Amino acid sequence: MYALKIIAVALGAYLFGNINTALIISKIKKQDIRKMDSGNPGSMNMFRNYGVILGLVTLICDAVKGAVPCILGWWILGDEFSFSDDRFGLYLGGLCVIIGHIFPVFLKFKGGKGIASSIGVCLVADPIVTLIMFAVGVAFIIITKMGSVTSFIIISVPLAIEGFKTNAVGGYMGVVNALMIFALFSLTLFAHRKNVVKLFRGKESKTVLFGKNKSAKRNKNAAA
Q1: Model pTM?
Q2: Between helices 88-102 and 115-125, what is the axis angle to 10°?
Q3: pLDDT band, residue 171 (cuts 50/70/90)
């Protein structure tokens, strides 16, 4: 019975992760975010091309998408459907929804980079630290306009803290939970591999929160 619940949580979270908010919004706008600027169907590219309102809508929806499987997984795999001290379901739901977001079967395994959904995971795991780091990230991106670096500023600290906490519990499950957290972070880092290269080359696209950048205007003109 427990094994079936694990499969249900993992599969449900993966399929839920396949829902791509950025792509849906851009299609409503009769465009395709995958053909604009960086080509990434995620919140940062939405900020660049559609401005702060639709960027925030995408960010919030993707964060909710990351949070829901964590909450349900934590509850379903808890002791008799409860939010127990065992967070295995939380991390399983979080890892699988990120896999679904980055490698969605319905989009030929070409999805977003998982940061906004990871923020949702972090909010469930450690809301206070995540909100603090989100505020730090917002200040950083306004000053530097470096979206990819901001992404990791927000999720790195809460994931690291959560990883140490679960590993400190000890035992087999503590190691398993820590490995899932590490795998989640590694996936988002892998999804940003091109951004890392661009960053070192000084060619990383700037993200302007309040307004649209020049590359976004060029893309929209080209599409017109």
Answers
A1: 0.88
A2: 170
A3: confident
Task: Determine the 3-state secondary structure of 109 from DSSP.
Answer: coil
Q: What is the 3-state secondary structure of 81-95?
A: CCCCCCCHHHHHHHH
- Dihedral over Cα of 94, 95, 98, 103: its sign: negative
Whether the CB-CB separation of 34 and 41 falls below 8 Å is answered with: yes
Residue of 5, 6, 205 lying closest to 95 (CA atoms): 6
Measured over the CA atoms of residue 61, residue 67, residue 69 and residue 75, the dihedral's sign is negative
Distance from the Cα of residue 189 to its chain's centroid: 11
* Exposure of 221 in the CB half-sphere (CA atoms within 13 A): 7
Residue from 71, 42, 35 nearest 59 by CA: 42
At how many degrees (to 10) do helices 88-102 and 2-17 cross?
A: 30
pLDDT, tens digit, 9 for 90 and up, residues 3-25? 999 999 999 999 999 999 999 99
Which residue type, as a one-letter code, is found at position 64? V
Would you call 135 exposed, middle or buried from its count of C-beta atoms within 10 A (0-12, 13-18, 19+)? exposed
